[in-house]
């Protein structure tokens, strides 16, 4: 891990920035490490407008695989604690999945604290429906659809899976849940921010009424999830969240792959120097391929 700056590694192992360090600035300083020299893809469509809502242009960066389509589709939600990040901070993530043959639609959803829940969730669910209706324009086959995300994006992906199951659509074939938050209130407690006013995502006045809501905490509403890849490292401070949702999926009889990487921190799908980086993509893509490339 010597190639990873100490402050970045500390942040990923604690989810608390070092004193005096702005997380967004730190990620920007390390952009070359996380996004430099991405794999080749067939085409990139940046900033595709999906809709305008509440003064926000909901857009997506779309990475198209090489070769003739139609390609299976992955709708992806970036991490960043619901407050930061974008498709640009996760550019290489999108390109890795596209290089593996997936039309990857990387969503620039609304972020807190300006746009609190349910804004990000609403954008992500809308984007999934948009993908079903529009993926073919970019060479995608939305009948072979995955939804995924990392960290806060893993929470949003789980919420979309839960909402889709409750509403009977859109039909999602695979979930890709990368070190996500699946019980929001338990995670806030574990991270030392259990008070409503100490978090940014939920409206303070709704903090308690939203406890257990599947759009916030999909853990207890996963009995009708599609097959899921669940990836996490043992040095991730929210490691327990992935273990809990994998256990719930097992109890519900849902095929899943709980991929635990010894010694890996939070964020390893973006930390290119780590062996866990390549291992994570290899395992996640192999699981997706089982269902989407038959």
Automatic annotation (TrEMBL):
One Gene Ontology MF term: hydrolase activity
Family: Belongs to the 'GDXG' lipolytic enzyme family.
Organism phylogeny: unclassified sequences, environmental samples
Residues covered by the Alpha/beta hydrolase fold-3 domain: 74-269
Entry keyword annotation includes Hydrolase: yes
Cross-referenced Gene3D superfamilies: alpha/beta hydrolase
PANTHER family per the UniProt record, alphabetical: AB HYDROLASE SUPERFAMILY PROTEIN C4A8.06C (PTHR48081), ALPHA_BETA HYDROLASE FOLD-3 DOMAIN-CONTAINING PROTEIN-RELATED (PTHR48081:SF8)
Record-linked Pfam families: Abhydrolase_3
SUPFAM superfamilies the UniProt entry points to: alpha/beta-Hydrolases
Assigned keywords, A-Z: Hydrolase
Identification of the protein by name: Alpha/beta hydrolase fold-3 domain-containing protein
């Amino acid at each position: 891990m010597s190639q990873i700056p100490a402050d970045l590694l500390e942040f990923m192992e604690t989810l608390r920035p070092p004193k005096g360090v702005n997380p967004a600035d730190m990620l920007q300083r390390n952009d070359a490490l996380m996004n430099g020299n991405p794999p080749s893809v067939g085409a990139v469509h940046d900033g595709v407008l999906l809709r305008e809502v509440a003064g926000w242009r909901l857009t997506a960066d779309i990475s198209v695989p090489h070769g003739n389509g139609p390609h299976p589709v992955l709708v992806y939600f970036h991490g960043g604690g619901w407050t930061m990040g974008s498709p640009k901070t996760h550019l290489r993530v999108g390109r890795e999945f596209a290089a593996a043959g997936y039309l990857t639609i990387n969503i620039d959803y609304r972020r807190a604290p300006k746009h609190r829940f349910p804004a990000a969730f609403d954008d992500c669910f809308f984007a999934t429906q948009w993908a079903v209706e529009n993926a073919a324009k970019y060479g995608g086959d939305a009948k072979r659809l995955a939804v995924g995300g990392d960290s806060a994006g893993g929470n949003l992906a789980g919420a979309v899976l839960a909402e889709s199951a409750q509403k009977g659509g859109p039909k999602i074939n695979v979930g890709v849940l990368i070190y996500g938050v699946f019980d929001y209130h338990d995670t806030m407690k574990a991270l030392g921010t259990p008070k409503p006013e100490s978090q940014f995502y939920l409206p303070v006045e709704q903090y308690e009424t939203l406890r257990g809501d599947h759009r916030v905490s999909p853990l207890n509403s996963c009995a009708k999830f599609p097959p899921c890849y669940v990836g996490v490292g043992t040095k991730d401070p929210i490691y327990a969240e992935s273990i809990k949702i994998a256990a719930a999926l097992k109890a519900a009889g849902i095929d899943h792959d709980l991929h635990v990487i010894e010694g890996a921190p939070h964020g390893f799908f973006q930390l290119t120097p780590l062996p866990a980086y390549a291992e994570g993509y290899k395992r996640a893509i192999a699981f997706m391929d089982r269902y989407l490339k038959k």
